[in-house]
């Protein structure tokens, strides 16, 4: 009786693959999971992020409805409802942004807005996690 050959060794462990992008966002994400295009403000076209500055991430977050500063109610988030957003650009260093502003604290969250026209919120930052800034794909343009 012949001895059985040992099973082939498994391939070396690779870094976890980035989450698969939805069909509408697939052309925005490179093979490494980073943004292929520049991220811009939908309202004024100001550049928020350069290509390659953020990683695609899927996380369910509630953002207040989009508005310009002049239309915002005084005292924070304003109460006008919001949207659940699921696809984001995750930025790990606030200095990676080309142009972004932050609201005052709303609980333990700061919302991200365009620093030029103050439209937003375009994203979300929890003060408990100093290294995670989320920019909602549906709230920005790409070039």
Automatic annotation (TrEMBL):
Keywords: Acetylation, Guanine-nucleotide releasing factor, Metal-binding, Protein transport, Transport, Zinc
GO BP terms in the entry: post-Golgi vesicle-mediated transport; protein transport; small GTPase-mediated signal transduction
Record-linked Pfam families: Mss4 (PF04421)
Molecular function in Gene Ontology: guanyl-nucleotide exchange factor activity; zinc ion binding
Gene3D superfamilies attached to this UniProt entry: Metal Binding Protein, Guanine Nucleotide Exchange Factor, Chain A
Source organism superkingdom: Eukaryota
Ranges of Pro residues composition bias in the record: 1-21
PROSITE patterns assigned: MSS4
Region (Disordered): 1-24
An example Gene Ontology CC term for this record: cytosol
Cited InterPro entries: Mss4, Mss4-like_sf, Mss4/transl-control_tumour
Name this polypeptide is given: Guanine nucleotide exchange factor MSS4
Organism: Pluvianellus socialis
